[in-house]
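Researcher: Structure for this, please.
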Amino acid sequence: MTQLELRVLKWIAENKLWAKWGRVHTAVYKFTGGRLGHGSGKITNLLLTTTGRKSGLPRTVPLSYIADQDRYILVASNGGADRDPIWWLNLRATPDASIQIENKVLQVTAREADESERENLWPQLHEANFFYSRHRANTDRHIPIVVLTPV
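Model: Predicted structure, token format:
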């Protein structure tokens, strides 16, 4: 990927337009029970609802994920931006959340993957969503891998 392409991806990640698209994606996903918005090729999406760390209000975002046995794995890449995504900051403050996968809603607890889990999960994550490699190339920050375990 060229430096220009990496800069464009970073600009998209840090632009408010991306957040607006996320709200549209969330609305369509909820309205259709995930029939629209759950998958695109190999990439699958869920809706994550966290508790806002400042507002205390529910905050829902669409995120790509992989299923790993009975767990769900997310990457807090924020599109390669130099700051953590707000949903990850919310989960660090309050790890209890809910996810919607298609029309099924589950209560989950979040934690960051440890180093050995990271090593095992990165190849699977890259295979499921090739953008993660580009996100890693776009930032020097540590990108957390988040493990969601159903309660």
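Researcher: Any notable elements?
Model: The longest helix spans residues 16-31. The mean pLDDT is 88.
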